[in-house]
User: Fold this.
Amino acid sequence: MHGISRRQFCTCAAVGGLYLGAVGCVPGKRRSAQASRDLPFEVPREALNSAEYGLTMARFRAQLGTTFTLVPPAGGSLDLKLIAVNNLGPAIKQPVARGEAFNCHFSPAGAATLPQDTYQMNHPVLGTFSIFIVPFTPPDQATGAALPPEYVASFNRV
Assistant:
């Protein structure tokens, strides 16, 4: 059985979602876009100018151990500490490896739990941006017992 890998599917879905989210979905209306030399498609100008476009693995790694403030839609805030940034390799492997894929692990300051969703995140250096996080409860390597929950955000930058 031939098909596309999960990562390829997620990459295509993320790019499509970014495009539709950045420029809207209005049939028949021409959208302005800037061609990219490295990609076989055009990246919308709105996406290139978004706060999320500049969120690279290097920028997150430089902020390891710092506090991010997550703002739920219902109000309030939750402080999260960036505890790990894991390199997952190139976002696109064929025909030429390019882009970057990584995930960020955040630890909540308190016992509050949030469902997976897209939230506004604030940081003194990285600014304000939207981020999709998923709760994750890692097992203790020694005992197998559940550790306190973390939140994970995955990035596929093509």
